[in-house]
């Protein structure tokens, strides 16, 4: 088998995806229990204020600014005691802080904007989106792990937000990431795409599903494709990955080699599933499809999987 490491591009495909541009130095070996509290005392500290599914943005300077000072955060009622230290960028402490601000009561220059809109409208740069993905995922995990899964006692934040410790039995709990396989199956000059019932009109995408315990990425790709579409896969190759803070997933993009083409759609999972020839996919990407069919937007890993295949020889 050829060794392909040094044939790979110097900038991997994941770098071009939304939420994947995180440049924070996480300093994972230097997280003391009081690291977040100490970072908040630094005048230069920058805070992301995160409400459930939304990020507070400041438009007072004309463009969207996702960062706040401690003084501004306190004035807005942010839960400073729940602050998480994300790490440092150019030596500056970066923190995520939960806030329960009512959208209607915010000053005119502040807007609590949902994560998808921030991504789609380009309201934060790549580094800001990466910081958002990290902070939102951690805060969502903390919100759902207030109590110990072993004894039921309350848990307390430790390690600057990267651990919770049970006050009863002492069990330590660590943040989770849910891996999701997303795959584009290919047969000759065709690719397999489907649409869920919640999709926007006309949108078709790559199939996807959670990776189960004890399962390899490749096995999950094969299982999900067979379960959802009745398509058996041979070779599976990795392409890219994307942090997805809904609430704390990692999308793992792959291609699969189809061994059959007769589709058996799981109606509980998909509204429709079919093969698309390359020429039709190129029309969908270009926005010229006669039936107004289209693929997910460019910031999504599904789009990159589809475009990379469609643009290949």
From TrEMBL:
Catalytic reaction(s) noted: a 5'-end NAD(+)-phospho-ribonucleoside in mRNA + H2O = a 5'-end phospho-adenosine-phospho-ribonucleoside in mRNA + beta-nicotinamide D-ribonucleotide + 2 H(+)
Record flagged with keyword Magnesium: yes
GO molecular function, one term: hydrolase activity
Record EC number: 3.6.1.22
Keyword vocabulary terms for this entry: Hydrolase, Magnesium, Metal-binding, NAD
Family indicated by similarity: Belongs to the Nudix hydrolase family. NudC subfamily.
Protein name as catalogued: NAD(+) diphosphatase
Species per Swiss-Prot/TrEMBL record: Aminobacter carboxidus
Lineage of the species this protein comes from: Bacteria, Pseudomonadati, Pseudomonadota, Alphaproteobacteria, Hyphomicrobiales
Record gene name: nudC
């Amino acid at each position: 088998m050829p060794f392909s490491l040094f044939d790979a591009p110097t900038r991997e495909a994941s770098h071009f995806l939304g939420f994947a541009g995180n440049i924070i130095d996480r300093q994972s070996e230097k997280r003391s229990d009081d690291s977040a509290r100490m970072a908040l005392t630094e005048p230069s500290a920058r805070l992301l204020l995160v409400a459930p599914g939304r990020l507070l943005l400041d438009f007072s300077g004309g463009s969207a600014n996702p960062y706040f000072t401690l003084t501004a955060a306190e004035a807005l009622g942010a839960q400073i005691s729940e602050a998480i230290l994300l790490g440092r960028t150019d030596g500056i402490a970066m923190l995520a802080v939960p806030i329960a601000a009512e959208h209607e009561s915010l000053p005119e220059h502040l807007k609590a904007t949902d994560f998808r809109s921030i991504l789609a409208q380009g309201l934060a740069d790549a580094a800001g989106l990466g910081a958002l993905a990290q902070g939102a995922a951690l805060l969502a995990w903390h919100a759902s792990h207030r109590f110990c899964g072993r004894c039921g006692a309350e848990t307390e934040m430790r390690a600057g937000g990267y651990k919770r410790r049970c006050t009863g039995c002492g069990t330590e709990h660590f943040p989770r990431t849910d891996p999701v396989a997303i795959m584009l199956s290919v047969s000759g000059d065709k690719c397999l795409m489907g649409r869920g019932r919640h999709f926007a009109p006309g949108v078709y995408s790559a199939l996807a599903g959670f990776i189960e315990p004890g399962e390899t990425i490749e096995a999950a790709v094969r299982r999900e494709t067979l379960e959802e579409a009745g398509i058996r896969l041979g070779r599976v190759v990795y392409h890219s990955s994307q942090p997805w803070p809904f609430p704390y997933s990692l999308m793992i993009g792959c291609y699969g080699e189809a061994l059959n083409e007769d589709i058996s759609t799981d109606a509980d999972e998909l509204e429709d599933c079919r093969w698309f020839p390359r020429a039709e996919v190129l029309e969908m990407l270009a926005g010229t499809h006669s039936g107004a069919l289209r693929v997910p937007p460019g910031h999504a890993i599904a789009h990159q999987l589809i475009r990379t295949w469609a643009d290949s020889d």
